[in-house]
Amino acid sequence: MNSALKKGIDYYFDRDGCMVLTEKYHLERGYCCGYGCRHCPYDYEKVAEPKRSELCQKKKK
Q1: Which of 2, 12, 30, 42 is deepest in the core (most CB within 10 A)?
Q2: Residue 11 CB neighbour total at 10 angstroms
Q3: Cα 55–Cα 37–Cα 50 angle in degrees, nearest 5
Q4: Is the pLDDT assigned to residue 2 strictly greater than 80?
Q5: SS3 assignment, position 26
Q6: Which residues on neighbouring strands pair with residue 20, listed in sequence order?
Q7: Helix residue ranges per DSSP H, 1-61
């Protein structure tokens, strides 16, 4: 993976000014980091319960 992040492709800033990593970035990284990222394509597999269940429910809505 290229180490230089590209704005609008690998990340964007939400309304609160927080940097949000995209699903594309996560797929290129290749694993769940366990932080509960908004666009995690790995079903939050490394996030501890009960936060994991909460995030999975929220993502389904």
Answers
A1: 42
A2: 15
A3: 30
A4: no
A5: helix
A6: 12
A7: 23-29, 51-60
Q: Letter for the amino acid at 35? A: Y
What confidence tens digit (pLDDT) does each residue in 40-56 have?
A: 999 999 999 999 999 99
Is the separation of the CB atoms in 40 and 29 below 8 Å?
Answer: no
Do 15 and 1 form a contact (C-beta atoms < 8 A)? no
Tell me the C-alpha distance between 50 and 61, whole Å. Answer: 18
Contact call for residues 39 and 23 (beta carbons, < 8 A) = yes
Q: Which helix (H) or strand (E) holds 13?
A: strand 11-13
> Could you identify the residue written with the tokens 């501890």?
48
CA-CA distance, 55 to 43, in Å (whole number)? Answer: 9
Report d(CA 47, CA 53) in Å as an integer. Answer: 9
